[in-house]
Amino acid sequence: MDDGVNVNGHEQSQSQSRKKNKACAPCRHQRRRCPSNCPLAPYFPADQEQDFLNAHKLFGVGNILKIIQACQNSEQKRMAAQTMKWEANRRADVDPVYGSAGIVWDFCQKIQSCQLELHSLLHQLALYRPQSQLQLQHQRQNVNYPISGPLKLDGEGSPFPDQNHQNDGS
Ligand SMILES: [Zn+2]
User: Fold this and answer.
1) Of 76, 87, 110, 170, which is least packed with CB atoms within 10 Å of its CB?
2) Organism's domain of life (predicted)?
3) Which long-range contacts (C-beta less than 8 Å, at least 24 apart) are formed by 79-82?
């Protein structure tokens, strides 16, 4: 029990001192001391250096700083930094030409293709609908015929011929 507490306490103090000593990725890149109120440190920590390098390549440190400082609250700043990192990583790793716009473009094309398919299916459905209605009418007529047929035959031919003869005779 005591060992666990000591180990956890040791780890916590180690990570705290690491955070204090390590400059954020932008300050490290610019080889300057990272101040305690560094505006980029919360969004580009030292262990996300590649994310920063990609964002720096695409936007530049000055523009990243301008965009983050133009945000009104910490949530907007966090989202803006996340968006810049995502866009920069997408361009660096997957699509250097279109970046995230390539995903939007792909989805637009899929939507267009699905709309064309839907239009074609609705057109086919409109063509088959009158035929199926005619078939339904024929089926209803065929079902009615055999029911009315035997009833007429029963009325014409008596099931008890002997009784008729007995009635005539008496
Ligand atoms: Zn910094």
Assistant:
1) 170
2) Eukaryota
3) 81/43, 81/44, 82/43
Number of alpha carbons in the 13 Å side-chain half-sphere of residue 76: 7
Distance 9 CA to ligand 1 centre (A): 26
Q: From the CA of 85, how far away is ligand 1's center (Å)?
A: 16
Selected residue with higher pLDDT from 167 and 69: 69
Looking up tokens 């637009």, which residue turns up?
A: 108
Distance between Cα 107 and ligand 1 center (Å): 38
Whole-number Å distance between alpha carbons of 79 and 32:
26
Cα 28 to ligand 1 centre (Å): 7
Q: What is the Å distance from ligand 1's center to 10 Cα? A: 25
Determine if the pTM surpasses 0.70. Answer: no
Above pLDDT 90, what percent of the chain? 62
